Amino acid sequence: MQRWYFRSTSVMIVRIWSSWLVQETTEKNDFAPEDVTKLHLDARDNKFMEFIPNIDVVVVSSGHWFAKQSVYVLNNEIVGGQLWWPDQSRPMKVNNVEAFGISVETVLSAILTQPNYTGLTIVRTFSPDHYEGEAWNTGGSCTGTENPLAPGELVENGFTNIMHEKQVWGFKRAVKKATNKSKLRFMDVTRIFGYRHDGHPGLYRSPDPNKMNKRGPDGRPLPQDCLHWCMPGPVDTWNELVLEIIRREFEGDRNSS
Predict the structure, then answer these.
(1) Which of 141, 153, 218, 249 lies 20 to 30 Å from 45 when distance is taken between CA atoms?
(2) Sequence-distant (≥ 6) Cβ neighbours of residue 46 within 8 angstroms
(3) How far is residue 38's CA from residue 73's CA, in Å, rounded to a whole number?
């Protein structure tokens, strides 16, 4: 999507968009119509995999798109769906949480078996959201959260926890399939950033100053963004963690040589 080249250090940073990290198609498939995205959970997304051999450090992050409408295909068979399942009399074999775990295994296995890739892969864990009261699309809010939570104030989020568990599951399964000389590291931000409910755009994502003070008919604030991060603190810390992992790995390589 974007590339930034720093001439003073000959470093290029590339951001590549891959919503689910696995292959997606839109063509009609069996009883799934053309207008619904099909995710082939056991097939890698070649839109970014083709770049992997030429990259020194890969940071992989995913998960939240599994809340969006999609159909799950495994071994060429439709096995489940999210916000889509036309025949309620027929049980789904794979739900969105399980689909996420399978996708993690698929993409990491593809990276760890990619010929000629000797770089470092960092898996950033599932990012916690902080919608309070309701969900993101039903009036959830993070208004007034101006400071990090104190120890003991963290409210467990069941969906976040199970998504994190499935990510760990996929990670461990992929490690067993590694065949190349690349390195894989797990950067766990899920629980610690559960305390940073103050780090989201919230209602300030909108440039409209009037929206910040408006409320809906029920008295609640208008839709907010309590999922992405923008306030000072969390993202800066993620950058520090990534740089520390890179420093340790590459210093280790120099010491060993």
Answers:
(1) 249
(2) 23
(3) 7
CB 143 within 8 A of CB 81: no
- Each residue of 8-57: pLDDT tens digit? 999 999 999 999 999 999 999 999 999 899 999 999 999 899 999 999 99
Residues forming beta bridges with residue 39, ordered by sequence position: 24, 72
Question: What pLDDT digit, counting tens, does each position of 90-109 carry?
Answer: 899 999 999 999 999 999 99
Measured between alpha carbons, how far is 155 from 218 in angstroms, rounded to an integer?
A: 25
H helix runs in 72-207, sequence order: 96-112, 158-175
- The percentage of the chain sitting over the pLDDT mark of 90, rounded to a whole number, equals 75
- Residue recorded with tokens 């390589």: 253
* Residue from 172, 162, 31 nearest 100 by CA: 162
| 116 three-class SS | coil
Please, are residues 104 and 84 in contact by the beta-carbon 8 Å criterion? no
Residues 6 or more apart whose CB falls under 8 angstroms from that of 181 comprise 118
| Residue among 101, 79, 99 nearest 90 (CA) | 79
